[in-house]
Specification:
With 88 residues, the protein is an alpha+beta fold. It is 18% helix and 35% strand. The radius of gyration is 13 Å and the shape is elongated.
Length: 88
C-alpha cells in the first residue's frame, strides 16, 4: 500500500485496508485516491473519495480513518493513494 503524498505530516500509525476477497479473486484492483483532513492532534477527521473502485474505496476509507499522524500546529489536507494489487 502506497501512502502517496503525506505533505509534512509524519504517519505514526498505519492500518492496511482489507482487500475484499471477491474482488481479489476476480483480479480487480487499482488505485483508490482519498483526500483527507488530519487534525492538529494527528487524527484523520474527514475523508473524501477522489477516485477509484467504490468497493475498494470503502475498505480504504475504513483503514485510513484509523491512521494517526504526528501532531502539528494546524489541520492538514493530504491526498492519499492506496494501491490494491490482486497479484500480491
Amino acid at each position: 500500500m502506497d501512502k502517496g503524498d503525506r505533505a509534512a505530516r509524519k504517519l505514526l500509525t498505519q492500518v492496511n485496508p482489507d482487500y475484499p476477497p471477491d474482488l481479489k479473486r476476480a483480479a480487480i484492483g487499482g488505485v483508490v485516491r482519498l483526500d483527507i483532513v488530519v487534525t492538529a492532534r494527528g487524527n484523520v477527521d474527514y475523508i473524501e473519495v477522489a477516485g477509484g473502485n467504490p468497493i475498494l474505496a470503502e475498505s480504504a476509507s475504513r483503514a485510513v480513518k484509523q491512521w494517526k499522524y504526528a501532531p502539528a500546529s494546524s489541520s492538514t489536507n493530504i491526498r492519499v493513494n492506496i494501491h490494491f494489487d490482486p497479484h500480491q
